[in-house]
Write a structure and sequence with these properties.
globular, 3-stranded antiparallel β-sheet, alpha+beta, single chain
């Protein structure tokens, strides 16, 4: 995994309804959940360098967004190696629109293609070298599945940047009604 540098930004949909799932994963193994990072779906990460985010770029982002709140349903768990996540297909069209508005910004540096599926990461980097790691990821996935489904609604996106003391909000971009 590439560690983000200070000044990195992201466009996120925060999902507080899913925070208990991250807490559940941390109770199994605290190393698989990023401390201080709430449950979210990244629509575009990395986005622009923080010093390039201004009103013009935020207006371009707003213009790409749908009108109105987007209902979502966290319904199934995906597990691949040391990753446990929940797909969010309802945010796929919005992510595609945001990415199309900023084609020079390739999601995740291209590791997952030009338009990867949107998801909530519940656990990441479960160490496969640790004895029983596959069991840890499976245990987390099973526990999370027992808490689903969860219904939520996305009413705004958050633009965040990484600073010396962690991620902080730069702007909130409401989905206009």
């Amino acid at each position: 995994m590439t560690v983000p540098r200070p000044g990195t930004t992201a466009v996120l949909a925060l999902l507080p309804e899913a925070d208990p799932l991250l807490e559940l994963a941390a109770a199994v193994d605290a190393r698989v959940v990023r401390p201080g990072v709430p449950a979210h779906a990244a629509l575009l990460y990395p986005w622009l360098p923080a010093d390039q985010v201004g009103e013009r770029e935020l207006a371009r982002l707003r213009a790409a967004l749908p009108v109105g709140r987007v209902p979502i349903r966290l319904a199934e768990v995906e597990r691949a190696g040391g990753f446990v996540g929940i797909p969010l297909p309802e945010l796929g069209a919005m992510a595609t629109a945001v990415r199309a508005a900023f084609p020079e910004q390739v999601p995740y540096g291209g590791r997952f293609g030009q338009d990867p599926p949107v998801h909530v990461t519940v656990a990441l980097d479960v160490d496969p070298g640790v004895s029983g790691a596959a069991g840890v990821a499976a245990d987390i996935a099973d526990r999370v599945a027992g808490r689903l489904p969860i219904s939520a609604e996305v009413a705004a996106l958050q633009v965040v940047t990484l600073g010396s003391s962690g991620w902080r909000r730069v702007a909130e971009v409401p989905l206009a009604d």
